[in-house]
C-alpha cells in the first residue's frame, strides 16, 4: 500500500485495497482503528463490538480459509488465515485476541469443527480444475447433489408487506 495517506476518507472511500490494509505496528494500529472504513469494523477490532458479527460467523457450518503458497496479491499470504504478521514476527490466529476473545465468532466456529485451513500451491485464486472440484466436493457436496427446485417462501414482516 502506498504511504500516501491511506487513512484519508478520500482514499478509504475510493480505493478498495486501502480498505483491506492493516498495519499491526503500534504506531499505525491506532490510525487503522480510527480510520479504516471496512476491515477494522468487520473484524470487530474497535472498542464497541457488534455482537451480530460473531453470532453470524458462529452459525456457519464451515468457514474455509485458503492460503495460496505463492500468493503475491495477499501480502503477507499468512494473513489469509487471519495470522498477524509484523515484520518478521508472526502471531497465528488462535493466539490473537480476535480469536481468544471471539470478536467475530471464529473461536466458537472452531470449537464445533467448522473452521478450516487449506493451503493450495500457486498464485492467488489460481486453482486447477482438480483443486477447485475437490474443494467444492469437500464443502458443498458432489456435483450430482440435488438441491430444492425452489427456495422456500419466507414470510414478510408486517412493515415490509405494508410498504410493498
UniProtKB/TrEMBL annotation:
Question: What molecular functions are annotated in GO for this chain?
Answer: thiolester hydrolase activity
Q: Which PANTHER family match?
A: PALMITOYL-PROTEIN THIOESTERASE 1, PALMITOYL-PROTEIN THIOESTERASE/DOLICHYLDIPHOSPHATASE 1
> Which InterPro entries does the UniProt record give?
AB_hydrolase_fold
Q: Specify the protein name.
A: Uncharacterized protein
Q: What organism is the protein native to? A: Verticillium longisporum
Origin superkingdom: Eukaryota
Keywords attached to this Swiss-Prot or TrEMBL record, sorted alphabetically, are: Hydrolase
Query: Which Pfam families has this protein been placed in?
Result: Palm_thioest
- The signal peptide, as residue positions, is none
Q: What are the leading ranks of the lineage?
A: Eukaryota, Fungi, Dikarya, Ascomycota, Pezizomycotina
Amino acid at each position: 500500500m502506498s504511504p500516501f495517506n491511506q487513512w484519508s476518507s478520500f482514499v478509504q472511500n475510493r480505493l478498495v485495497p486501502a480498505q483491506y490494509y492493516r498495519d499491526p505496528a503500534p504506531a499505525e494500529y491506532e490510525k487503522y482503528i480510527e480510520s479504516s472504513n471496512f476491515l477494522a469494523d468487520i473484524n470487530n477490532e474497535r472498542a464497541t463490538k457488534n455482537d451480530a458479527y460473531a453470532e453470524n460467523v458462529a452459525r456457519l457450518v464451515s468457514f474455509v480459509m485458503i492460503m495460496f503458497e505463492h500468493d503475491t496479491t495477499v501480502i503477507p499470504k499468512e494473513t489469509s488465515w487471519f495470522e498477524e504478521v509484523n515484520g518478521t514476527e508472526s502471531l497465528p490466529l488462535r493466539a490473537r485476541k480476535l480469536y481468544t476473545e471471539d470478536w467475530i465468532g471464529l473461536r466458537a466456529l472452531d470449537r464445533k469443527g467448522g473452521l478450516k485451513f487449506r493451503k493450495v500451491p500457486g498464485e492467488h485464486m489460481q486453482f486447477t480444475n482438480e483443486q477447485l472440484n475437490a474443494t467444492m466436493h469437500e464443502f458443498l457436496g458432489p456435483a450430482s447433489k440435488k438441491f430444492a427446485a425452489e427456495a422456500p417462501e419466507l414470510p414478510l414482516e408486517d412493515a415490509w408487506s405494508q410498504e410493498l
